[in-house]
Structure formats: C-alpha cells, structure tokens
Design brief:
By secondary structure, the protein is an alpha/beta fold. Helix content is about 40%, strand content about 20%. The chain has 25 helices and 21 strands. The strands form four sheets. The chain has a seven-stranded parallel beta sheet with strand order 11-12-10-13-14-9-15, with helices on both faces. Helix 10 packs parallel to helix 11. The C terminus is likely disordered.
C-alpha cells in the first residue's frame, strides 16, 4: 500500500517517475494526486477548438476528418497532414517524416491529441502531436481510462500527455491508503465535507457529476484552510509584538496641513483617514492595505497618517519600488507640505518637519547628509527605495512604514522594513496599491491585512477615452495614431509612447511571435518619421538614475513633447499636461497594467486619450482583454475581469514565489463563501493553538498543499 508522502519511483518505476518530476515537478504521491484535471469531457463531447491560444500546450478530444501525405520541397522527406475537428472548427496537425502513422490515423476515428499550438499560414496547427486513439485495438483500456462517462483532462507537458498522467494516477489510486484525514472531523461535519480518501478518488475517477462536485468541495477546503492558517498565524504573530501609540495631536502638523488643503477631501479619504488614525493611536501594530484607483488620492491619505506620527515625535518612511517614483514622491510631498516640510530651513513654518530622500545612486556627500538627517530624527518623513532597509540605515524612531505599490517589492525587502521599530516594537505598516483587488483576493493574498478601498475619484479629475487600434486589420489607422499625437502637442500638451521592451536585451518571448517592440528602436523611428520635429525623450529602467531623473524633470517642465518609455512610468508619475498615451503591442500587457498605464493621462483639466495598438486578431481572447479595457475605466470591474482571464493559481503560485501553483481548484471569484468561512475557522483554531500542536493534521495539510518554500514566502510577505 502507498501513503501520500511516498516517493513515486517505487510505485511507477524510475523512468516514469523521472519524467513526471522533469515535466511537471511531481515527486510524491501527494504531488501526483493533487495534480488535478484541468477540465473534464463527457463521452462523445469533443473539445471546442475555438478556445485555443497560440503557444499553449493543449489537449483536445477530436475526430479525424482528413489525412494526406506530401513531399517536402526543401529536402528529401514527407509531411503527413491531418485535419481534426470538433464538429464546428478544424485544427491542422503536421507529422514530419512519420509517414508510417498513416495506417493508424484513419478518418472517422476519435482520440485525444496533445501538443503546442502554433500557426502556419494563418491557421492553428499542432506539430508532431502526441495522441491516443479510441479504437478496437485498445478498446478495453480506452473504455476504462477515457470512455467513462467523465473523462479527466490533465495539465500536461511535452513528453507527459494527459493519458500518461491518467495511467499513473490509476496505478497510484489502486494501492493508495490514506491513514488519517488532516481535516478535523468536527470541521468535516460542520461543513459537510467528504473524507480525503473519497475526495482524491472522486476528483480523478468520479462515478458521476455529483461525486465530482463533492470531491471538489472538499479539496477546495484543503486549499483554503492551508492558506488561511498561515495568515491566521501571521496575524497572531503581528499583534504579539507591540507598537508605539500615536494619538492625534490637536494643533499639530496634521491639523495645519488640513487647514491649508486647497480642496475638500472626498468622503472616502475622510473615512479611511479616520480608520488609519484610530489604528495609529493604539499600541497594536497597524497592518492595513489601502487600495484605490489611479488618482483616487491615496498619497494625501498616506501623508496625513505620516504627519500624525511625526506629531508624536516619531518618523515615517515611504518605500517606493523605483528611484524615479521615490524622487517623484519626495517632490510631491514637499510641494503638498510647503513650508510645513522645510524643517531647518529659512522661512519654515513653526514645528515644520523635513522630507529626506534616500536612494542607492546618491553621491557620497549627499548620502551622508541624508543618513545623518534620518538617524538624528531631523527627517520626520523619509522617502526612498530598498536602500532604506539596508542595515547601515538607522532611524531615530520609526513609527510608520508606508509601502507604495507593494507588489513590486521582494518579500525579504518588505519583511526587513517591519523590523525597524525602536526597541522591541514594530512600526505601524500601511501598504498601498493602485491595482484594485477583488475582496476574495484581498482575503486570500493579503489575509493578514485590514483592507480599505478608495473608490471615489476626487473632484476635477478628467475622463480618459480608450480606443483599440487593430493595425493588422486596419493598417491605415497606424498613421492616424501619430496625427493624433501631433494634434495634442499642437494644443500645447504632451504624450507618452509606451513599449514593452528596452531594446538592448535579448527578447524573452521564446514563442513564434515577433519580439515585442522596444523603446530604443521606436524612439528613433518616430524622431525621423511621423513625429519628426517634436522634442522626444527616452526613459527606461536601465538608464543611470541621474539621467532618468533629468528626463522626468524635463518632461514635467514641458521641455519634451513626447516621452518614449517602458512601464517605468506605470506608477506615481504625475504630469498633468500629458494628455495622450500610445501603448505599442498593448496585447503584451495585462489588464491591470494597461489600466495603471493609462492613469498617467487625464490628470489635469483636459480629458485624456489612450490608444491601445495591437496586431491581435478579432475574436481572440487577447482582443477580448483589450476590448474590456476599452469599455470601462472602473479598475475594480477590470480587476475581476483580469482574474477571470488569468489562471487563478498564479495568484499564490509561480507568479509570486517561483514555485508551482497553490490554488488549483479554489476560485477567488466563485468561492467567496469557502474563503470567508475557512478564514473564520482558521482564526478560531490559531487563537486556541497558535503552533497547531493539537492539530497536527492541519499542520501537515499546510505542508501538503502549500509547499515549505511557499509557506515561508507567505510568512514573510
């Protein structure tokens, strides 16, 4: 018999086990049985070919329609062409120098076909696909594995197709023995959950659809509980270390700043400001996520919080992901504060503080001055990049850490900032993001944080119109793009042109598509072509910091008409006179990223214009994404759409920690009840037993579902 933690070579043989480990990072029985089917097909139901995307490794259940053989012109050899169909659309398969397969591939036969989707002469194609036919020769095995009422289709890889995975699963299930169920019996009874043995069998070899749904429900709970237990332990740990209380100081800097504000705070800014003020006034460390639309006024909310801490004689630090953004924040805070932020200077207001910038590229003299201002406490507000959390940077008394665009930081960097409080205390932490996050994602990815959302836009923000420019279908529209840019510049405004790549690096895209357009290629083409005569600047992340700052200052001052840049301008850059943005190869960006980018225009009194330039064809999923961005400027609506279009497992999987996906069944959009209930149960359990000493099964569940590296990652994130 086999247990969940047994290694696979003894059960499947060394060759098969090695193939699973190499192709899919599967090494144990648990790894294999938690490699759930991607989808299920019913007997006689063919796969919808219309849903395939270029570059994906696809498995389709289809019928052979036509097979033909031809000679290769360039060299001696043959190509066997096969057309398969789902009854509505066709997919071409090409076998090179494999004419012997013709006797197997008979029109009318049905089977599973697997391979990487490519394009040949504008037609989707599988080259040298692997296949498993359902015919009389293997009828018994095929009936057993594939022709049951419900056919599992697994996430596959080259050399390990879905039917091979199914055979491995069957071998393991035949000898599986689940000793103890990690989910406590009272939880299973309370939520009517199947036991683990039954659930694992039902997810891979369901007797019927009801059996499958019951199995999915239980295994979703495994995923939800594993993640929420980690967050519950983090919340428990966070409040066990005290923070210094920073109550509101009447007549202090924050009151003075409020009196000078040239505009009224929105209801959202006032309400969230009150929540943060209350958090800061306690001796429990605040851990709050402030999310809000681009331009919703998060910086003002953060500044008021920082001033409340400064009024209590402590310091506040703002951590930004790039030097461009750090410098922009420092300038913006100084402008908003005026003489309230000129501590130690002539003309400073009474009790003024100082805003100090610290970045890694500063000269020795400038850096030494900044470090002295920080350690002495002269700098009440410190703005910087990751340079702020290096060991030699000492704060006099750090009371609040504000992390801007937190998703751009590494785990260790954010963790280091939390340990910078004086003595045994932690600083209060305010995490900000301009990427709106659905509630269930916030509960799952930021489960240890209280979440506040700014949904209301300040008065005076101009509307932004967005248009998809499909240059493959309408090439004449390409010239019109640059005419529009010239029109905006002619009115005294400025424009951004955004490209996915810098241009001095090898393209990272290994697919058959052309390399993404690059800043260093596009800028000279525009300068010598359609935008000739305009003042054009270039900005990207690998420029020397002084050069980047000089370019941004020139653009902000109106000395440049057009800025050709990478996504270095995605967050924090504020140039109210910039009214137009052209995003080249817009299909290479995600929905949320496109929304962030276009938020750089329409920041003044003039409406903004965003043009999404793409070669993606109408009817593809890619064009659907772009059409969604075109149709709404509601970032919260787009965030849900973005989640629907992406593999949800990446939220906690390879996209963040470099490991395989954690969430394979749990849907962050559709399983809100499971997430909320598991969060409450996890909280109760950890309050009673923080180290899970009495819940060894749940501790093991965390290890099985969330691997050790990712558990450590989540602990520090």
């Amino acid at each position: 018999m086999a247990g969940l933690r047994d290694k696979l070579p003894l059960l499947l043989g060394a060759k098969t086990a090695k193939a699973l480990a190499t192709a899919l990072d599967i090494e144990t029985v648990s790894d294999l049985l938690r490699h759930y089917p991607r989808r299920y097909a019913e007997r006689g139901e063919l796969t919808d070919i219309a849903g395939l995307e270029l570059g994906e490794h696809a498995t389709v259940l289809a019928r052979i329609e036509k097979v033909s053989k031809r000679r290769m012109k360039a060299r001696n050899g043959t190509i066997l062409d096969m057309v398969i169909t789902d009854g509505k659309r066709r997919l071409t398969c090409a076998f090179f120098n494999q004419a012997w397969r013709e006797k197997d591939l008979v029109p009318g036969k049905t089977g599973l076909f697997a391979g990487k989707v490519s394009a040949f002469r504008d037609t989707l194609q599988l080259t040298n696909p692997e296949y498993e036919l359902f015919d009389a020769e293997n009828e018994a095995e095929a009936m057993d594995n594939f022709l049951a009422a419900i056919i599992p289709v697994y996430p596959a890889a080259q050399g390990m197709p879905t039917w091979s995975i199914a055979k491995c699963v069957r071998q393991v299930l035949d000898v599986l023995e689940v000793d103890d169920d990690p989910m406590p019996a009272e939880l299973r009874r309370l939520h009517r959950l199947a036991d683990l043995d039954n659930a694992l069998r039902g997810i891979h070899r369901p007797e019927n659809w009801a059996h499958l749904e019951a199995s999915k429900k239980r295994l979703k709970w495994d995923e939800a509980m594993a993640v929420q237990l980690i967050f519950a332990q983090r919340r428990y740990s966070a409040v066990s270390r005290p923070a210094k209380a920073n109550p509101h100081v009447s007549g202090g800097l924050m009151d003075a700043f409020d009196k000078r504000l040239p505009f009224d705070l929105t209801a959202g800014q006032r309400g969230i400001g009150d929540e943060i003020a209350a958090d800061l006034a306690t001796d429990h460390p605040m851990n709050r996520l402030l999310q809000g639309e681009v331009g919703s006024g998060k910086t003002v909310v953060a500044l008021r919080a920082m001033l409340q801490v400064v009024d209590n004689g402590r310091q506040a630090a703002m951590l930004a992901p790039t030097e461009v953004l750090a410098a922009q924040h420092a300038r913006s805070l100084r402008e908003m504060l005026g003489d309230l932020g000129q501590g130690g200077e002539l003309g400073a207001a009474e009790n003024a503080t100082r805003v100090t910038l610290l970045t890694g590229s500063m000269g020795a003299k400038e850096r030494k001055k900044a470090l002295l201002e920080i350690v002495s406490g002269e700098a009440g507000i410190v703005v910087g990049t990751h340079a702020l959390i290096q060991d030699h940077v000492e704060f006099a008394d750090l009371g609040l850490a504000v992390v801007d665009e937190q998703h751009r930081f590494g785990v260790e960097q954010r963790d280091a900032l939390r340990t910078r409080g004086a003595g045994d205390t932690s600083p209060h932490v305010l995490v900000m993001t301009a990427t709106p996050i659905p509630r269930t994602v916030a509960m799952t990815v930021y489960g240890d944080l209280e979440v506040s959302a700014l949904r209301e836009m300040p008065v005076g923000r101009s509307p932004i119109s967005t248009t998809v420019v499909p240059v493959a279908e309408k090439p004449a529209w390409f010239d019109r793009i640059w005419q529009r840019v010239r029109e905006e510049v002619g009115k005294g405004h400025q424009a951004y042109v955004v490209c996915p790549r810098i241009g001095d690096e090898p393209p990272s895209d290994k697919s058959d598509k052309r390399p993404p357009l690059a800043v260093l290629d596009v800028a000279p083409e525009l300068e010598n072509g359609p935008l000739q005569g305009l003042k054009i600047g270039v900005l990207h992340g690998r420029m020397p910091p002084d050069d980047k700052d000089a370019v941004m200052r020139a653009f902000s001052a109106g000395k440049l008409d057009v800025l050709v840049a990478t996504t270095v301008i995605e967050v924090g850059v504020n140039v109210p006179n910039a009214t137009a943005m052209v995003i080249m190869d817009a299909d290479r960006f995600g929905v949320s990223q496109l929304h962030q980018l276009r938020g750089r225009v329409g920041r003044g009194s003039v409406p903004g214009l965003c043009l999404l330039v793409t070669e993606a064809l109408d009817g593809t999923a890619t064009r659907e994404r772009l059409a969604a961005v075109e149709s709404t400027t509601d970032g919260f609506e787009l965030s849900r759409l973005d989640l629907e279009l992406r593999r949800e497992g990446d939220i906690l999987g390879a996209a963040q920690s470099g490991k395989r996906s954690t969430l394979k069944l749990l849907s962050l959009l559709r399983d809100e009840d499971v997430i909320a209930e598991s969060r409450a149960r996890a909280q109760e359990i950890v309050q009673q037993d923080p180290d899970l000493q009495e819940y060894r099964g749940l501790a093991q569940l965390v290890a099985d579902v969330v691997d050790v590296d990712r558990a450590e990652y989540l602990e520090k994130s």
